[in-house]
Structure formats: structure tokens, C-alpha cells
Amino acid sequence: MAVKTIQAPIPGTFYRKPAPDQPAYKADGDTVAVGETVGLIEVMKSFTPIVAEEAGRIVKFYVENEDPVMAGEPLYDLEA
Fold first, then answer.
1. Domain hosting residue 62, numbered range
2. CATH number of the domain enclosing 7
3. What is the pLDDT along the chain (80 residues), one digit of tens a residue?
4. For residue 16, with 0-12 CB atoms within 10 Å meaning exposed, 13-18 middle and 19 or more buried, which class applies?
5. Number of domains present in the structure of the chain
6. CA of 17: how far to CAs of 56, 62, 79, 80, in Å?
């Protein structure tokens, strides 16, 4: 299986959780389905969902909850 690095499409703040008191959408080792939410990027109170474009297993995240990200910065590796 090939490992693909998924990058941030826009700059902002990356959220791995839907809310501070909720569990993370996904963690290292979790499987994802096409269209499943992996995280959110917030820019000026506007939230853009980061969804899986293909099914696979998350190998590792490069960013933590509430980390600032730039467009093109690696978010996570996906083994598809």
C-alpha cells in the first residue's frame, strides 16, 4: 500500500476535535472512509472540514489540536 501525505488546503488553525470536550475525529492508526471528516481548519470563525478523499489508515498526524497551519503544510500520512 502506498503512503500519501495529506496537506492543508488553506492556512488557519487545525482542529482535531469537533469541540474542546469531544474526542478527536481520528487518531494515528485509525481507518477512514471516503468523505469522513479528519479535522477542521478555522479561519476567522469560518470552519472548513478536512475530509478523506480516499479510504485508508492514518499512519501519523504531523499537527496537534489547535496548531496553526499554512497552506501546503503536511497534516497527516494516509496509507491507501
1. 3-79
2. 2.40.50.100
3. 799 999 999 999 999 999 999 999 999 999 999 999 999 999 999 999 999 999 999 999 999 999 999 999 999 999 98
4. buried
5. 1
6. 20, 15, 21, 23
